[in-house]
């Protein structure tokens, strides 16, 4: 052995492993290997001094004090039955932005405002053509023209929308 004083033996009676990075138990001040460093692993008699946990009520998120020898689940259950100040009406609602399209009851997480009419819409009705936008007199962008062409192709009305009409709409956009 080159380094006889390096490391310490585990204090667990069944282990006694030589550990070069021993861990001290902060409750009983004994030295343990990594396998026996936890209170439960070496059956620490002083663990009650250090192992203080305060459960939190899952409904009102308030810490619930638990006395020594009491079971945390039972105490939290009693708190929920008697002292809990949980009010479901105060719970934060996530999907609050309702679609302005007539007949649509969909709600979204964030606002999707139309650039032309400034109304809020769901993802399905966010484009001006999808919600029959009132302010359709504005010129259409190239992306808008592409969307119109896709919609026309899917509905079979591609012959109604000619490329000259789209070119005229794009020229109107470039002038402004």
Description:
The protein is elongated, with a radius of gyration of 35 Å. The model has no long low-confidence stretch (mean pLDDT 79). It contains 4 helices and 6 strands; from the N terminus they run ββββααββαα. It has 3 domains: 7-51, Zf-an1 domain (Irregular), CATH 4.10.1110.10; 53-85, no CATH class; 92-150, Zf-an1 domain (Irregular), CATH 4.10.1110. Strand 5 (97-98) and strand 6 form a beta hairpin. It is of the alpha+beta class and 176 residues long.
Tags for this model:
elongated, two-stranded antiparallel sheet, 24% helix, 176 residues, Zf-an1 domain, AN1-type zinc finger protein 2A, alpha+beta, zinc, two-stranded antiparallel ribbon, 4 helices
The description of the largest β-sheet is: 2 strands, antiparallel
DSSP strand content = 5-15%
- Element order: H for helix, E for strand: EEEEHHEEHH
- CATH architecture label name of the largest domain: Irregular
Give the overall shape, derived from the CA principal axes: elongated
CATH class of the largest domain: Few Secondary Structures
């Amino acid at each position: 052995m080159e380094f006889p004083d390096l490391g310490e033996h585990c204090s667990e009676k069944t282990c006694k492993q030589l550990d070069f990075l021993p861990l001290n138990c902060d409750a009983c001040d004994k030295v343990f290997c990594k396998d026996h460093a936890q209170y439960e692993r070496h059956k620490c008699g002083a663990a009650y001094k250090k192992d203080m946990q305060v459960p939190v009520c899952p409904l009102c998120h308030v810490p619930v004090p638990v006395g020594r020898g009491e079971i945390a689940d039972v105490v939290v259950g009693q708190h929920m039955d008697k002292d809990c100040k949980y009010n479901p009406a105060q719970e934060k609602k996530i999907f609050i932005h309702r679609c302005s399209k007539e007949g649509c009851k969909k709600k979204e997480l964030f606002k999707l405002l139309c650039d032309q009419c400034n109304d809020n819409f769901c993802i399905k009705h966010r484009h001006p053509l999808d919600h029959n936008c009132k302010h359709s007199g504005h010129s259409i962008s190239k992306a808008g023209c592409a969307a119109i062409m896709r919609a026309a192709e899917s509905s079979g009305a591609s012959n109604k929308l000619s490329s000259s009409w789209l070119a005229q709409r794009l020229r109107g956009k470039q002038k402004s």
